[in-house]
Amino acid sequence: MTKNYEVNDADQEAIGIMIAINLKLGWHVDNSMLVALSPAYWEYQYVPQAELLLVPTGASHGRVRLDVMGACREARCDAIILSAGQTSDGARQTYATVIRWSSNGARWHGPHLPWLSASGDQLWLTPDPRALAADEPAFSLDLLGLSDTAAPYTDALDQDRGLTAARAFIDQALGG
Prior knowledge:
Layout: H1 9-25, E1 45-47, E2 52-56, H2 61-75, E3 78-86, E4 92-102, E5 105-116, E6 123-127, E7 138-142, E8 145-149, H3 156-174
Parallel strand pairs: 2-3
Antiparallel strand pairs: 1-2, 3-4, 4-5, 5-6, 6-7, 7-8
C-alpha cells in the first residue's frame, strides 16, 4: 500500500529549496531507479551522478529519520534531508541533515546550513554554529555529490557572509 501525501506550505518550500540546489549544482534527477525501492520512498528524489537521495520535507527531521535510513539502506547511497525554518529574526533559513551511508551503517550529521562562496559558484553545507553540530564536518557540494571537508570560511565574518549569501540565493529562487 502506498502512502497518500498532502503537500503543505512547508513541504512546498522544501521542494523549492531542493529544486534551487539542483539547478545551482547542475544535478539532474532520475527517479526511474526509485521504483526498485519500497513505495514509501518514491516521493524522494534521486541524483544519479551524485549517488544521492534528496528528501525535501516540511516535517521534523526526527519524524522522517527512520524512513530515510531505510531508503539509504535500500538504495545504498547518501541522502540530504532539506527543510525550511526561520532564523531568530524571522528570516527564511534552510536546514539540512546529511546522512552518509556505508555497509557498516549510516552516519548522521546536522543540522547544517547552506553556505555560498563569495563568487557564488560553490555551495557547502556547514554546521549550524548555534547547534551542537558545530564541531562536525562541512560538506562541499558539486556535480558529483558531497564531500566531507573543513569549513570553507576563514573567520566569523566570512562565515556570516556565506550564510547570508546562501539565504539570499534560496530566497531569490523561491521568489521571496
